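Blackboard transcription, Thursday session:
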Amino acid sequence: MGIYATGRPRQPIAIEELERQAREVLPREAYDYLAGGAGSEDTMWANRAAFQRWRLVPRFLRNVAQRDLSVEVLGQRLSTPFLLAPIGVQSILHKEAELAVARAAASLGVGMVLSTLSSFPLEQVAEAMGNVPHWFQLYWPGHPELAASFLHRAERAGFGAIVVTLDTYFLSWRERDLQNAYLPFLQAQGLANYFTDPVFRAALAAPPEKDPVAAVTLFSRVYSNPGLTWADLAFLRQHTRLPILLKGILDPDDARRAVDAGVAGIIVSNHGGRQLDGAIAALDALPAVVEAVAGQTTVLFDSGIRRAADLLKAVALGARAVLLGRPYCYGLAVNGEAGVREFLQNFLADLDLTLGLAGRASFAEVNRDCLVPGP
Amino acid sequence: MGIYATGRPRQPIAIEELERQAREVLPREAYDYLAGGAGSEDTMWANRAAFQRWRLVPRFLRNVAQRDLSVEVLGQRLSTPFLLAPIGVQSILHKEAELAVARAAASLGVGMVLSTLSSFPLEQVAEAMGNVPHWFQLYWPGHPELAASFLHRAERAGFGAIVVTLDTYFLSWRERDLQNAYLPFLQAQGLANYFTDPVFRAALAAPPEKDPVAAVTLFSRVYSNPGLTWADLAFLRQHTRLPILLKGILDPDDARRAVDAGVAGIIVSNHGGRQLDGAIAALDALPAVVEAVAGQTTVLFDSGIRRAADLLKAVALGARAVLLGRPYCYGLAVNGEAGVREFLQNFLADLDLTLGLAGRASFAEVNRDCLVPGP
Amino acid sequence: MGIYATGRPRQPIAIEELERQAREVLPREAYDYLAGGAGSEDTMWANRAAFQRWRLVPRFLRNVAQRDLSVEVLGQRLSTPFLLAPIGVQSILHKEAELAVARAAASLGVGMVLSTLSSFPLEQVAEAMGNVPHWFQLYWPGHPELAASFLHRAERAGFGAIVVTLDTYFLSWRERDLQNAYLPFLQAQGLANYFTDPVFRAALAAPPEKDPVAAVTLFSRVYSNPGLTWADLAFLRQHTRLPILLKGILDPDDARRAVDAGVAGIIVSNHGGRQLDGAIAALDALPAVVEAVAGQTTVLFDSGIRRAADLLKAVALGARAVLLGRPYCYGLAVNGEAGVREFLQNFLADLDLTLGLAGRASFAEVNRDCLVPGP
Amino acid sequence: MGIYATGRPRQPIAIEELERQAREVLPREAYDYLAGGAGSEDTMWANRAAFQRWRLVPRFLRNVAQRDLSVEVLGQRLSTPFLLAPIGVQSILHKEAELAVARAAASLGVGMVLSTLSSFPLEQVAEAMGNVPHWFQLYWPGHPELAASFLHRAERAGFGAIVVTLDTYFLSWRERDLQNAYLPFLQAQGLANYFTDPVFRAALAAPPEKDPVAAVTLFSRVYSNPGLTWADLAFLRQHTRLPILLKGILDPDDARRAVDAGVAGIIVSNHGGRQLDGAIAALDALPAVVEAVAGQTTVLFDSGIRRAADLLKAVALGARAVLLGRPYCYGLAVNGEAGVREFLQNFLADLDLTLGLAGRASFAEVNRDCLVPGP
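(Written on the board underneath:)
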């Protein structure tokens, strides 16, 4: 009790080392796509810096012999206070891609949000997740029937919620990818959900297997619609009974509009610094959003979490749970399913220890009393 | 829609890379002249740091399918919210110098402010600009007839405004140039407007082509007059009907004096950190100046803008439009007209995406609601 | 008078150099164990940064010809305003370990706090300390009889106080050690107090000398009890008449609970950044804790002190005395007893000069008037 | 007018480069003695950082055709707003030492403060200064008759003021010097004023030329007296009619005591970060001191000035003039008298341009309106 035992780790423990190892094993353009951000990438770094400005203040002699890592989100108990964030086109990182991630996550009871831009069809990934919570992330297509089809397929496949990403109606100015002239979707990667979709296929003269160029062209036309407005949310609600979360909210006014729109939850996020260059650090946006919604909807968070202490800070500032992105992908790149699992095992061990050392036995006790603003 | 396509870029996308490439192709002293600043260069770096202290807060679901990059300045609609800043003696960067820049700018509808210290006569550059807005920057000569001559020539050549630079009545203590013992004007570079001027030529015993040393000497005597005062502005107004803007304002009291003097506009600028060492970052000076003029004159801005997000921040803080300086010169150094054009195309693409991803469809919507102070 | 004389030093004066030399002489995993911190190690660095944000303001012409470095703590006068912090398993640094440290400290009249995880039995270290103040640090065992035995042994051996470490009921997520797969206790190092304890030995089937694996296993089971609460402090008080200090307090509410519990003192500390990743810098926590206890208990401090100026700042902010940790261990690693002594001599000389140059003749004059917050 | 002409400089323009060159030409221990600071040297760096937190705000169109660099100090007009700071034992930098410095300074009309620890007798340096202002810095000896003798000699030699250094009654913990085991005074360097003093010589059994060890020993005994108090200032006033300035004041209360003591001026200084490790940056201490004395005594400043902009900031914050230290010594090390002169010429040129570009024609116009706090 109280002392850990461990064998020699198969992969780096420190996330910075894991990222370095991923950079070594990946082709340059795949690494850049994963690790890079928009424009000057200062938002990506601001995300990290924001965590250092909040400091945890532990309490002692409170009996933390038993720690409970579970949280309740949307009326459901998650065994961990985080889910894996939706990250598209994981085939550029490892051939087993989202399936490897799903298997690793499911084996540890960790929930997952699957990207629309998955390398495998959503039905197949859902099967790999089994009973462990899995949600579907929607890049809201400009083609309404396709949007409806995605929703129906996700619901039928057993996904528990729809996460609508608001901040990516077009890809940002990503200088690394532009320099590399790299956009994997143009090589038909990450389009499994489109290529297997009956609505999408019906709009093609020839199946994608025969004419991939035409299929990619159609994809690029239907991928999104920057003309959508709050009124259009009604369309989504008409086509699914699943709870809907809006991902990318940073402004308190948008958070209030989301409450007015009756969504089940919002995710405070700047897409890991990959979309609006110069955007506010996601953690810096969190307190005002939490205050704005005043408990009327569930607030989740992502962008910048690398270790357990980051997660505690986000929860202490009002997030019910968080999403973890790039870190698990470094594990995937380095060692596939086993690499993801090992990263997750490490993160869970760190989380259990950190929660306990903060003097809290469960995340219900993690609130503003746990931290102070840094100097 | 929503996905960009791009060929492999001919030159670096990231401005830092473009600058690095310019450093490689340029002679050391030319690069230092362009990239350097006054004294310790801390003002130059303060200019950049100031942008990171303001953070954009995007809005969503607002219909940004159509974006409009145009702005109205001095009663005229510019197709872009920026003009190219006046930078002298571009012949040290590329033999086509200001002509290459003008052609690139004009081909994209981007306005330009031509420096008094141009390598080509203002008439020739004006011709290259065609109908695209072009203004003339005046280093206010100590010799009144020469000043009047410059104004008349600019007006006759079709320049749309006069930008009077206030902050360069003498060159600052630029340590790189002093160490390099480099001042291109002394080699008769950048003096085309003087050498072609009838007033200037009349003051010489022999034409500059015959006796360049005497011509350079005369230039150094008439270049400026640090004894000028606000009262002297009347002289300029008497000699041109063009709108006059004062460039270099940083103090709110000077801004109010400019309003009292009835100028058409002011440009908040510290000359890219090239003049007063230790000066306030231009962006830090902007809000107080905007407040001081209270809408009674047009406020433009330059100093430190490198990417679209910077431009949005300056406009959000009250600038009607901005000027872009060193970045286009790096393009010029690397690849002449094509290099400038490619830089501008990139900047415009970044601008269009960034405006849209901020959830704004035009710069009329870009105001203080778009940002929050950083932590 | 007023000028120091010194021979060429045998070991580096600057602590950073001394640490560098320790890194050279130590096995990688021993150095990492000593120098590393929890998780991202940002708490460890925050500890250091916190000192730079307070600035000393010296006074002059106050007669500091005689300086007095002594302080009164728990009714006893210490000849120096610091004690050596409890650091376990020093055998990984030097074979003479805690004995070398005790001899060096005692020779200079410097007090010491011995770790439960000592490489030599507490009785032997106490003997080496002689009449110089020495306290016993308790990792409060989950096995009550063992806890009682430690207390009785410490009291019998002449230790003057019990320092109960609150923040280490389990070891934190230390990435360096995990990467090195290094935990010296598992190789039976640092367990002398356990292996010589009658209660501990009685719980074993075979003595530790015969079956070290079983002994280590027992140790890992009895090392701590994360289920302890404030109510359990009564047990400690029942088993010793020595004053009890609680080490690791960072939250003002915990400080008030400590006052209510009637302990003799508290030590504001985050265990040198080795336990809760993301924790508040210890110095940043000090003022609020000092205010909370309002003089009702003695406040000591550790975490991050490297030079005399740091110590002055901690005392000025309300600490009665401080504990010094890693620095003396670098001396131990480099040169054993002599290395510790030389470090201490340097620190004492620095302290005497710094106190005098601050214009104070004793630590009774070191208070909030001595410093201002940095900008 | 308005354009500078320059030949290729003989030595680096940028002070950082000049320092680098000095490091190359000097023996390691001499460079370390000059460039180093106390303890962690963070005060030395804090001195520099403090300047960046104040930003100059230039004004325009104010007629700065004629600039006046002179200032009035103690009823005397100095042709420059700075004097050379007292720096001892310059023989370790160049064999002509203080004489070279005096000649360079005098040739440009720049005032100088000579250190007690001069390598040449004060009479000889005074002669080199001629009519250019020169003051004598006093390390107040513990031996009263020696103190009186120094005062009388300085007065007789034509020094215009006495600068009493308060902060060096003993040398601080300077880790570089300790590591190098270097203290030049112990090799009888920098002791010319002592060895030529009749009182000092009378106290020796043999003249210093015969028994330098005994002379150095006496020096180390009489160098200072840390027991002095404010009351002892009367002694100094009794032995000289020269104005007395106190150097090293950082606390407003000490400043008020200085006013009460009726001294002619104070110098806000932390001895360039060479004495109290962790001390407040001198510039950060300046505003409160200026406010405390409320014009009742003259306030000068040193510690950290490297370029003209720094000087403007110090004057804007209330210093009547400043002292420049290490920079001229780098010039001395690199090229003797010519090296000092070239540094000073550069500094003066920078100063003239910077004053003008700030829109001020004289230092009488340099006040709080010239700057704003940085962000």
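Lecturer's comment: The mean pLDDT of chain C is 96.
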